[in-house]
Structure prediction request, 482 residues.
Amino acid sequence: MSAKNSPDIWNLVEAKRETFFALSDRIWEMPELNYEEFRSVAEHAAILEQQGFRVTHGVADIPTAVMGEAGEGGPVIAILGEYDALPGLSQEAGIAEQRPVVPGGNGHGCGHNLLGSGALMAATAVKDYLEAHGLKGRVRYYGCPAEEGGSSKGFMVRAGVFDDVDIAISWHPAPFAGVNNPISLACNEINFHFTGRASHAAASPHLGRSALDAVELMNVGVNYMREHMPSTARIHYAVTDTGGSAPNVVQANATVRYLIRARDLPEMQGLLRRVKKIAEGAALMTETSVRSEIVSGDANLVGNTPLEQLMHRNLERLGPPVFDEQDRAFAAKIQETLTDEDIKSSFARFGLKPRMGVPLCDTIFPPESGDGTLVGSTDVGTVSWVVPTVQMRGATYAIGTPGHSWQLVAQGKAPAAHKGMEHAAKVMAGTAVDLFRDPALIEAAKADFRDRLAGTPFVNPIPDDVDPPIPTKARRAESVAP
Prediction:
């Protein structure tokens, strides 16, 4: 696509801005956790139907997953969205002080209200473009729940819902705009259930076998292992069941949940085997038994140079988001609640020289920015092992804002967030249109994909016998839904 075509697709994005700004705000107001996003998915499905998509509900047998498709024949380009929230981050919008709407309630602390709405905004513009220009091809919007530890895309990959997709495109809210450096950590979330023998802790302690002791010994063992694992790996844990609150009872049951992360799938699987051995050792030392249960898992991101170069060209063509003085004034107030280290770290993560006193993004960061040492995990990674995939970062909040924070929630309905979302939608839509108009770009992306994965078979980090951790109440809601 030549430069003269860009305003055409951008205008189609702009034409629907109020619809999608309103959708994003509605999702912000109904923050729902993993696999419980019934109201959020209903909002997305309603917009899909309103905009003329063919809608599939309950994708991969996940009640809160949805897919909309438009167009006929040709290549299939998927645009991925999310809409799940986080616990404990309830916060009023538009203020620079911590003030929960509901104490202890949920909040969109990762900007997924924007992520899903912006992705659907892009998909709708592409649908309208295909119709207006009579182009063959299909655009799909995948509404994906439970990214925050639920790994829904991994279950969707396992179900084969991406098998006929040619290219996948996504984005994520951030302090800066640019092509995402495709580095993330492969991970598994796994429960270790220890079972011992209860007894009176004073009268018959010798008859008891403490499951809680086993958990504590396992944690000590894993902490000693940290010295002997790759520096890029990460291991976190939380004791989810201590076996009770009575200190005069030897705890017969206890559970610890581990999140094991590494630079790629083979490395992560090696660490997982070592952690399992430590759990077995803790059980042996305490004469208890242990059972492990994988809950979820994500593969690491696989990059794609042709797609990243194409997306960067769209970013350069469009330029950075345009913010006004009111946007910058509110962002500056948010920065007053942060430390200088927060702000400097934000610049460093994207490979940029720190500039204090700059509240919002005013540039496009170059490809492959940042050293990739401070990264998390995403289930988009699993998609990238089966489909050539590209992501961008969209500037939607004040520089320095920590992820998963009340400050991020407070900015989720701000005009700057809307502008950053629209900017990301234009880039994603422009990238998709380029691909539809030039099939050689798709072939180049597929060739890069094959080269990167040659000799490395894909092993989904979610085993075949693991079901999505859909809460029972969510299953009940599905069974009574019209």
About this structure: The chain has 15 helices and twelve strands.
